[in-house]
Amino acid sequence: MIYCGIDWAESHHDVAVINDAGELPAKRRITDDAEGYRILADLLADHGDDPDDRIPVCIETNRGLLVALLNQGGRKVYAINPMAASRYRDRHGVSRKKSDPGDALILANILRTDMHVHRPIPADTPQARAVAVLARAQQDAQWNRQQMSNQVRSLLREYYPAALDAFATWTNPLTRPEAREILRIAPTPAKGAELTIAQLRAALARAGRSRGIKATAERIQDVLRGEYAHQPPEVEDAMGAQLLGLPRQLDAACIAADELAAQDETAFREHPDSKIMLSFPGIGPQLGARILAEIGDDRSRFSDARALKAYVGSAPITRASGKKHHVGRRMVKNDRLNHAGYLWSFAALNASEGANAHYRARRERGDWHAAGLRHLFNRMIGRLFHCLQRREVFEEHEAFPSALRDAA
Questions:
Q1: 157: pLDDT confidence band, cut at 50, 70 and 90?
Q2: Is 29 helix (H, G, I), strand (E, B) or coil?
Q3: Cα(297)–Cα(389) distance, rounded to whole angstroms?
Q4: Is the same domain home to 45 and 67?
Q5: Averaged pLDDT, 32-50
Q6: How is residue 90 annotated by DSSP?
Q7: pLDDT score recorded for residue 234
Q8: Which residues of 109-124 are buried (b: 16+ CB within 10 A; e: fewer)?
Q9: pLDDT tops 90 at residue 382
Q10: Is 353 exposed, middle or buried (0-12, 13-18, 19+ CB in 10 A)?
Q11: Are residues 161 and 113 in the same domain?
Q12: How far is 326 from 367, CA to CA, in rounded Å?
């Protein structure tokens, strides 16, 4: 058996090939380009790599062109966490020396000794990987939009509270185009107080609003002309100049989040698993895309539902040593999927009687809100694993038979 370890870097990669005895028959440094990939393929072929018997590869990343090329043709590629790789380094010496060729050798030895305890990169379809790219990009854009919105809100609280009060009746007010347009033409309290009804109506129309423009403009004018504490005029002008730059960044974040959401939804609905996921209460196109992005469509990735629950962090973890025994929530988990699970279980409370009854039962047993939602998510993710394996849609009476019987 031959094993290969690759220490990944930005401009070059160190490759180590070892056998079952731990001997090093070959090592090489390759460049990060087409020529380097060809040299790597020839190096593996010289040591027995062929389409029917692929040499497994260990590397410290699960993305990039190099990983994509290695993952083709049925080859098993193992992505090792860099922290885990550093712990393996301590097994070979206590001097704490480090080098790129040495790290490549350590990665190859991980496969030689402990390949059975590590999981290869899932063999997801290109369609699922495309959904993963769009879903993660959309989630990042949404987080960036919220971060920019918080910066604008923090600045307005320092010198322009009238604007916050004027937009307070809207949901996520600072991310709405009407609010950004008004702040663009009136970045200071003095300019806001000078706005006429006609100017406000024109700003609302430019932002895309078509209903209730007159009433909204009158309400905003009344608020902007109210009595508030003020900074000195020079300070207000300086903060207004600062504010003018933030809405432009917020505009870009909002546009990116909306465009990525539309593309993400289209790609998700075209995937075969979307019909099953959308049948679950509380899952919509955006949330379903995030879940699919993290669990993929490789049915052999998780051996059972317990493995999936541990991966998402919904299953409890036990720490026992001597007389100490503690059962608590998992801290090491897939954070993106865990966040999606919180939203899913919260939305399912109103969409499913069984889910609501399950959550209420957990609260009556003493669970806090987050613990109750986590327990519900644990139940739902197990059901999702079952439905995906059997290609079945969600059935309320099968997922929560006792809850519905008690309710009846």
A1: very high
A2: strand
A3: 10
A4: yes
A5: 90
A6: T
A7: 92
A8: bbbbeebeebebbbbb
A9: yes
A10: middle
A11: no
A12: 16
Q: How many domains does the chain have?
A: 3
pLDDT at 407: 53
* Element holding 185 (H helix, E strand): helix 177-185
Q: Is a pLDDT exceeding 80 seen at residue 405?
A: no
List the structure tokens of 208.
Answer: 């895309």
Q: What's phi and psi for 232, nearest 5 deg? A: -55, 150
Q: Report pLDDT for 266.
A: 94
Mean pLDDT of 365-390: 94
Residue 42 has a CB neighbour count (10 Å cut-off) of 11
Find the CATH number of the domain harbouring 78: 3.30.420.10
Q: Are 164 and 153 in contact (CB under 8 A)?
A: yes
In a shared domain, residues 20 and 117: yes
Cβ 118 vs Cβ 78: under 8 Å: yes
Residues 393 and 323 occupy one common structural domain: yes
In percent, how much of the chain has pLDDT > 70? Answer: 98
Residue whose C-alpha is closest to residue 399's, from 313, 279, 284, 264:
279
Which tokens sit at 371? 């613990």
Give the residue-averaged pLDDT of 264-278: 95
Whether 395 and 311 map to the same domain: the answer is yes
Domain boundaries, position 307: 275-407
